[in-house]
Amino acid sequence: xxxxxxxxxxxxxxxxxxxxxxxxxxxxxxxxxxxxxxxxxxxxxxxxxxxxxxxxxxxxxxxxxxxxxxxxxxxxxxxxxxxxxxxxxxxxxxxxxxxxxxxxxxxxxxxxxxxxxxxxxxxxxxxxxxxxxxxxxxxxxxxxxxxxxxxxxxxxxxxxxxxxxxxxxxxxxxxxxxxxxxxxxxxxxxxxxxxxxxxxxxxxxxxxxxxxxxxxxxxxxxxxxxxxxxxxxxxxxxxxxxxxxxxxxxxxxxxxxxxxxxxxxxxxxxxxxxxxxxxxxxxxxxx
Amino acid sequence: xxxxxxxxxxxxxxxxxxxxxxxxxxxxxxxxxxxxxxxxxxxxxxxxxxxxxxxxxxxxxxxxxxxxxxxxxxxxxxxxxxxxxxxxxxxxxxxxxxxxxxxxxxxxxxxxxxxxxxxxxxxxxxxxxxxxxxxxxxxxxxxxxxxxxxxxxxxxxxxxxxxxxxxxxxxxxxxxxxxxxxxxxxxxxxxxxxxxxxxxxxxxxxxxxxxxxxxxxxxxxxxxxxxxxxxxxxxxxxxxxxxxxxxxxxxxxxxxxxxxxxxxxxxx
Lengths: 287, 268
What we know:
Chain A is an all-alpha fold.
């Protein structure tokens, strides 16, 4: 039992080690600064500037968070503070089940609904011509995938704020909304931040759904109607070619390392925030 | 607030509705009974039986392996080293593993496959999906085993059972409904994942016959068929997507019902 336990615990560290080892080749020839900040991407000539891909990842996941955070938080507040028991017991399982929608299906939804909507309605309305395969499409699809994560964790966190704190606020004459806004949300802030960070981490690494709708053009994007090429999509797409060129392979491993580093930092930050929150309220459910 | 709730729930529901409406016309019996051999991708006859069987093989194999590793780990974490520094390390490590994007599981599994001299194959896909399932399963089982009452274990010890006997016969049985839920959720997650098997399992138009040959899968069937220029084939991608979604929603709903049903056989 000990051996199996040790083995499962070693997967994550081994993953990082494996990726580091695989990317030493590229790190030995191209400087880290050039890799991250250079915008020229010509693998055939040995130029590996990841800037367009990093920018693409940040644009798409950032936009997704902008779109996802307000409705998710309002929904969590509604579920935790206002909704009747019946509505809550109806909506929560529904959202949990729908949260299991696989990413290709979300991508399919994007291709069928979001991309044509942007191409035929939103694009012309804003006076830009676009194929629809854009940062906005990627952001919208990601937002719908991230919402259930933020909602479900925030809801748990908000509900675990002790009743006495609410009662104290109501007793001094605050309305329910004032209580929620100034007391409950402030108390739950750490936990809500953790929920948002976890959602961000998920958005950062999501591959297939984004790959299907974001256009995959390796240039620096200038508007949300431009196509982009996030890092996970790069790894997924260029995988077939990379085997023949060792440098290319190493470069993609470096991209994977970059991704896993950012995700781990997010994950650890969220864990620390949640731990602090748990310490304060003796929370058992949130994980 | 009600508006945001409506927006989020409506958005999620619209995925199911849109994929169903677009895919329904292509959902024929042929889809389930034939493989994609011949001129299927040009819009001729055929189905995606290879992808359906492949997905079941991949997710099934990974789930069996993951169960085999998860149950001992969860028992160890709870019954043997529950408060130790080591257990805290294991839990933190699994939490990190949980946050790893699925494409990275694919990359890492591929590094392992290169070491083992393995090409894209059913086995490679199973390895990637097992790693994907492990943190989901172990952390869920860990939470469930923690809820087994101490009194129950003490009753078992009092009858002379050893720690291992107690864990295997009493704790596991009491936690069974929760374990079923954990397993089905992990299975659903593995079945729907595309990025991790993209270059570990590959794709083929034939039924899987060997662990060492590439295998097709439903998520990748959706992905590849969508890229063809023929509307007929694209519509089949929608149908495959609907099939996948239906499978996963059923698993997810099933896990909820099962845990309620098996909950009757535990000691309250």
